[in-house]
Amino acid sequence: MLMRAICGLIRVDGGSIEVDGKRVGVDVDGPPSVGLLIENSGFIDGFTGFENLWLLAQLTGRIGRDEVESVLELVGLGDAGAKAYRTYSLGMKQRLGIAAAVMESPDLLVLDEPTNALDESGVALIQDIVHAQADRGAAVLVASHDAVVLSALADRIYKLYEGRIKGEVCCESA
């Protein structure tokens, strides 16, 4: 729920959320530059991976076909981009969701369980992508139940319980 609220997908009953000095749900509907992967992606089964990403890219007009092809390569779906989404394995679907989240180089990247359904090489790939996004200056928020994954991705780890931060678990740089 916290990630949804940060992205402006739901409103909070109490407290406030600020992104770049603006209150989400008050000053702005949501962050102006956000890429997100929360739960299951809503891709169209009959479209290819490329067609799904291209459809999303056309909503903002920020990137072109070459960038869509590049992000498919980045997540390891270069050849699979021409296959129908309905034929994708769970890991491939997860990779496509990551591609959609990062393809426009957002200022804020929000990923919920980004390594779900990924094999070892996919987990390593996601780590590289998350670090590259942070290195270019994006704020990256990752939620995971896997402490090993979090320690490899994060420079700060917070524990949430019943919607409240219960303390910083780790603050060492990954």
Question: How would you describe this structure to a colleague?
Answer:
- This protein has 174 residues and is α/β, with parallel strands linked by helices.
- The chain has a single domain (33-170), classed as Rossmann fold, CATH 3.40.50.
- It has six helices and seven strands, in the order αβββαααβαβαββ.
- It has helices at residues 2-6, 49-60, 65-74, 90-102, 120-135, 147-153, and strands at residues 18-19, 22-23, 34-37, 108-112, 139-143, 157-161, 164-170.
- The protein has a three-stranded parallel beta sheet with strand order 3-4-5, covered by helices on one side. Strands 1-2 form a two-stranded antiparallel sheet.
- Helix 5 links the parallel strand 4 (108-112) and strand 5 (139-143).
- It starts with a helix and ends with a strand.
- 30% of the residues are buried.
Topology:
Blueprint: H1 2-6, E1 18-19, E2 22-23, E3 34-37, H2 49-60, H3 65-74, H4 90-102, E4 108-112, H5 120-135, E5 139-143, H6 147-153, E6 157-161, E7 164-170
Parallel strand pairs: 3-4, 4-5
Antiparallel strand pairs: 1-2, 6-7
Helix pairs in contact: 2-3, 3-4
